[in-house]
């Protein structure tokens, strides 16, 4: 697309588009970025800059446009730093932040968490600034606290995906506290459920961390979801419980939790907010992951293959599911098939921004290295050497 063609779509002249490309003032205006995002059919968050300094500028401009109206970005930043700036926060501002939560979830499933940590962290700072310095009604304040809890959970997840586990734990803890302060059981369940998965995976995803506590967290999340959540949230929390039981080797408890997850997913009771994200691929993948951990390899293979097939529109999620499937095949003794699967998809997987994914692939490479005499293993190891 030429500068003239893009300009025609957003009603900018060619010199103005050139100014955008060079990082001119308009490139920091959310109104302009939104026009560009629509013209290019990409999420707005993908145009957000990554450095801390530039992200701060972006956050100020977001506030200037979305919450303040005509106030200047520099003046707003100075007033906010003194703690005396009264931002008038309304329902539309809460909805904008809610949309950002959904964008972060979607982008993580598509490209991975590494490139999203700064964007997400600055969104959390935005919510904190609005809560601390803003003026709003009681109902708007409660909604802002709830959506802030969900933003913290989303931010925790992208930090988890990028291998920053300590930061993820802190965001999940903050999210649970914010959810409790807002009286939001849905947001509390989401934060506790994600914390459960972090504890189950541990530091390297090869051994569970604090499995007994993980079960307690998962059960607390399931109770909160049962009271207030819709079908997807109840199903997701049941899967988290199944994963925690699998990490402890509790086959019967895991199976019961999986059964509850299926019943919840097919239910029509309750309502899930848009940011409760559980596509079919993630549902099947969670079930398959738990079955893999417990050693039920045939059932795990069936569910993980179905999950991979259902994840066509989510490249990072599909890559993660393929590594789970490969791990399950290795555990079942089919090293050749596992390596054939990984080698065939290495080009796509290596281009994703997920430290956690790359570590998992590296761990699999170390596991199969002793089988280097097998041609499929040699091909996979060669791909790892050139692409990772």
Automatic annotation (TrEMBL):
Q: Which PROSITE patterns match?
A: HTH_CROC1, TAT
Q: Which CDD domains match?
A: HTH_XRE (cd00093)
Superkingdom of the source?
Bacteria
List the SUPFAM superfamilies hit by this protein, alphabetically.
Answer: lambda repressor-like DNA-binding domains, TPR-like
Signal sequence range = none
HTH cro/C1-type domain ranges (all copies): 1-47
In Swiss-Prot or TrEMBL terms, this protein is called: HTH cro/C1-type domain-containing protein
- Per the UniProt record, the source organism is Nocardia callitridis
UniProt lineage: Bacteria, Bacillati, Actinomycetota, Actinomycetes, Mycobacteriales
